[in-house]
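Throughout our pipeline, every protein is held as a single compact record rather than as scattered files. Such a record has a labelled line for the sequence and another for the backbone structure tokens. The remainder of this section carries one protein's record, kept here as part of the documentation:
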Amino acid sequence: MTDRQASAIRSTVTRAIVTNAQVGPRTILQVSGLDNEDVQTVELLQPPGRSSNPAAGTDVVVLQVTGTRDHLLALGGDMLGQAIAGLLAGEFGDQDARGQRIGYRTALLEIVTPLKLAVTAPTITVQAAPSGSGPVAFILPLPTSDPHVVNQWWDNAGTPKISTG
């Protein structure tokens, strides 16, 4: 391979740092690092159904489509310190800067969050093992035909509770 060919390949595939992101129908990035240039419009390609808003400082791989700087695409995205530790072969997941994560593990779907968790489903089964010092509260609405009942749920001990309005 000649130096000219190697240079052409290096300029076609390069690494950049996200400086800003805008999410709309497509995620558009502003990046820096392409031969010390800042680029304002780089489309982030993601797997179907995946959405993200990369934080400033995220590393991406930038591809030059048709060999010109007129159309740049970014792939991937990695933020130092946000990798999920202990993934086995075939496992994957997402984690944010607060430590919230969804891990697709071999034997389970792992969801970790210090925030409230909203789940919408016709049926929910929960098995809980608290890992912190405080109790874990599950508020699961129960069906009712009484118009005076605003909400029904089970507390941590499995006791049905009712609030009226």
